[in-house]
């Protein structure tokens, strides 16, 4: 493939900006769970309301496999570009709709149903966004630079989380809790939706990938999902197991604004500040971890070592929080982000190459989103277990177990495997 550096940079920029906004739009709900539980759920025990709020949060993740599969099939059947634009449109409009929703006090249970409906639309969109961004950037990138491409897109998702964390830090600094519950909670969703519509206009300039154009000249897959399930079962299982660790880590980061203040005594504002600083760190470190992975030329080995180190260091890193110092809080959050950066830079190139081009978009989307749907139950599970046992080390123990699963999956995929080295 002869692809100009200008075209590659243009595609990577727009894919990354889109992932920034899509991730912001989707995770802002999780970060605001403590406020939204008051807005959308009846007055009752605080933990029960938060649990219900996280349940609606999880609904968006449950919708991801369906959305990812549908958008993925569109991407494999009709092109990466139209599938990409569909996911952008859905996310922008559904986020704007959340900003305009009535509260429980105004509409009662209907408000909860409307909120859940918007989260389902967000989930359908989000299911196709990151797999689409990774597929498009990868198919415009040389094999020796795929780690860098993946790291830039992942840096953009961290930038989205950074934007969400920064917005909430500003919100909690400038407004009282009463103001946020009354009207301030709408502002983050309103801004995200408007920016999403602006991005949709910009993404219209993206061209179809050379890989899909070449594929159209050879063959047309009318039923990519059926073909995927018939010919790539083992790849799907490996991909799901690999995705588990990264999904669990990222979702647990979204749980920290509730978990850390409750069990370690930090103010929510301190957690938002620490999250913002750690996300600034990971946005800058991601390109370097991508170059590091490309330089090593052994991505599965990087995955194995990352999982192993997490299992060894997980509990000690959580002990930093017991100090009560903001410095140790920030250090802990930076450590969590560093594991995400190392794993993700190696993970996505491997996941993409587990699937041949004619089913790649569908395969990556299905594999990625099924895992995230399962991992979306973690905040609810953590909340329920911690209410029963009140021991915060339940969290690192469960995460270390999941890391072990991904370690075994990485061990089963040697770097020299034909499924990894297959041609684009």
Helix content: over 70%
Low-confidence stretches: 416-424
Q: Biggest sheet, in brief?
A: none
Radius of gyration: 21 Å
Element pattern in H and E: HHHHHHHHHHHHHHHHHHHH
The backbone outline, from C-alpha atoms, is globular
Question: Can you walk through the features of this model?
Answer:
Helices cover 83% and strands 0% of the residues. The chain is built from 20 helices and no strands. The protein has helices at residues 5-31, 33-40, 46-62, 64-77, 80-99, 104-107, 109-139, 146-174, 177-184, 186-203, 210-218, 224-231, 233-264, 268-296, 299-319, 326-353, 360-375, 378-389, 394-411, 418-421. It is an all-alpha fold.
Outline the fold blueprint.
Layout: H1 5-31, H2 33-40, H3 46-62, H4 64-77, H5 80-99, H6 104-107, H7 109-139, H8 146-174, H9 177-184, H10 186-203, H11 210-218, H12 224-231, H13 233-264, H14 268-296, H15 299-319, H16 326-353, H17 360-375, H18 378-389, H19 394-411, H20 418-421
Helix pairs in contact: 1-5, 1-7, 1-8, 1-10, 2-3, 2-9, 3-7, 3-17, 3-18, 4-5, 4-7, 4-17, 5-7, 5-10, 7-8, 7-17, 8-14, 8-16, 13-14, 13-16, 13-17, 13-19, 14-16, 15-16, 15-19
Primary descriptors:
424 residues; mainly alpha; 20 helices; disordered C terminus
Briefly say what this structure is.
This protein has 424 residues and is an all-alpha fold. 83% of the residues lie in helices and 0% in strands. It is built from 20 helices and no strands.
């Amino acid at each position: 493939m002869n692809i100009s550096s200008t075209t590659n940079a243009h595609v990577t920029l727009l894919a990354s900006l889109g992932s920034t906004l899509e991730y912001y739009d989707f995770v802002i709900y999780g970060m605001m769970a403590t406020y939204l539980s008051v807005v959308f759920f009846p007055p009752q025990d605080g933990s029960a309301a938060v649990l219900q709020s996280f349940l609606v949060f999880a609904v968006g993740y449950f919708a991801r496999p369906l959305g990812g599969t549908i958008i993925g099939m569109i991407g494999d059947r009709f092109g990466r570009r139209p599938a990409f634009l569909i996911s952008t449109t859905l996310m922008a409009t559904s986020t704007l709709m959340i900003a305009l929703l009535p509260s429980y006090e105004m509409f009662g249970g209907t408000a909860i149903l409307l909120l859940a409906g918007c989260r389902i639309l967000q989930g359908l969109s989000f299911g196709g966004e990151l797999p689409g961004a990774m597929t498009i950037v990868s198919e415009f990138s040389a094999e020796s630079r795929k780690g860098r491409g993946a790291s830039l897109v992942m840096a953009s998702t961290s930038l989205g989380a950074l934007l969400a964390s920064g917005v909430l830090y500003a919100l909690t600094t400038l407004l009282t809790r009463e103001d946020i519950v009354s009207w301030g909670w709408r502002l983050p969703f309103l801004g995200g939706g408007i920016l999403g519509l602006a991005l949709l206009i910009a993404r219209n300039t993206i061209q179809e990938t050379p890989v899909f154009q070449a594929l159209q000249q050879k063959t047309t897959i009318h039923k990519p999902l059926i073909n995927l399930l018939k010919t790539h079962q083992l790849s799907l299982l490996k991909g799901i197991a690999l995705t588990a660790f990264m999904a669990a880590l990222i979702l647990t980061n979204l749980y920290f604004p509730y978990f850390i203040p409750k069990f370690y005594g930090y103010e929510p504002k301190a957690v938002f500040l620490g999250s913002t600083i750690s996300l600034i760190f990971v946005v800058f470190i991601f390109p370097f971890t991508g170059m590091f992975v490309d330089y090593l030329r052994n991505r599965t080995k990087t995955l194995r070592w990352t999982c192993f180190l997490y299992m060894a260091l997980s509990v000690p890193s959580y002990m930093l929080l017991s100090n009560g110092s903001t410095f140790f809080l920030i250090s802990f959050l930076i450590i969590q982000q560093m594991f995400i950066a190392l794993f993700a830079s190696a993970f996505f190139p491997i996941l993409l190459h587990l699937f041949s081009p004619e089913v790649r978009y569908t395969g990556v989307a299905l594999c990625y989103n099924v895992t995230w749907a399962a991992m979306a139950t973690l905040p609810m599970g953590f909340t329920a277990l911690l209410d029963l046992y009140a021991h915060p080390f339940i969290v690192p123990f469960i995460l270390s177990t999941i890391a072990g699963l991904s370690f075994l999956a990485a061990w089963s995929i040697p770097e020299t495997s034909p499924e990894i080295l297959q041609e684009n």
